[in-house]
Specification:
Strand content: 15-25%
Low-confidence stretches: none
Shape: globular
Number of helices: 13
Radius of gyration: 22 Å
Oligomer: single chain
Number of strands: 12
Distance between the termini: 48 Å
Largest sheet: 6 strands, parallel
Length: about 350
Amino acid sequence: MVTIKQIADLCGISRGTVDRVINERGNVKRETRDLVLNMAKELGYKPNPAGKALSARKHNPVVGTLISSEGNPFFDAVVHGIKVAAERYEIYGLKVIYRTMRGYDVKSQLKIMDELKTKVNALIISPINDPIIVKKINEFVAAGIFVVTLNNDIDKSQRHCYVGTDYINGGETAGALLQMIAPQQSNIGIIMGSSKVLGHKQRLKGFEKTIGKNNGYKIIDIKENDDDDICSYDKTKEMLMAHSDINVLFIVAAGVYGACRAVLSLGKQDKLTILAFDTVPTTVAMMQKGLIKAVIYQHPYRQGQQAMQLAFEYLVNGIAPEKSRYIMKNEIKILENL
């Protein structure tokens, strides 16, 4: 009987790529797809989904997800991508335990991880960048649990792979874009999510690096909103009232709606150039009102889908990730191309 491994060896590609083609999962280059399908046809390969499903059920694949999604609409699309992929794999006995939290409290995340540890053999997590969480992730890996960091990575952990965007590049892109749409003399106020999140710090670093080359650009103040709209409203209003010279607002992560409501409450909508991330419905509404000039899009649905696919392939097919980082492109969106 012809196996996926034999097809992979003959095509000179990985088992994972062949599996994605045969089972129509994920993006594969057209020429690679044609090569695999032609080779499978030539060898007379016939998949046995019933047998594969029966075999997979013996492994009892259970994936835990832990995301700081409460109060952050960006993660709606991420979770949707996870759930769509999970539904596709139910035939193989795949089960998912969904856990969420609000904000970036280390003790809360640690408690949920401890609850999940004895119940799962894979974990998809958007981690807080803290040594305690690093240690706990390493404990999961040592216990044989497959770990994917999703949307945000973490320093110096033994996680198997990361799925998300390049945050430094996101900040650099925002900085370059700002110089195209903002005044030559820009006093910038920054509303960021949390310094506890590696990606937020990296995005700010990339932004500062890019605008640092422009003598006309100056960062006036930075406030953290914990990705919460209410906090974002308060912090933005406080910052704009304290610094009347701010004419650019850069919103690094979530809390875009709250920040924009603060701008409206102060009647500054015509005096500020606002740049943000993501295309959640409230952000789109603010673009339609003319408050936000442009956003940078991170492909949240694909992030969730990719993370679940990697977990499935590892648990059911025994296929380890081909890369340590699966990066989605940062894309510039304006109202006309949403």
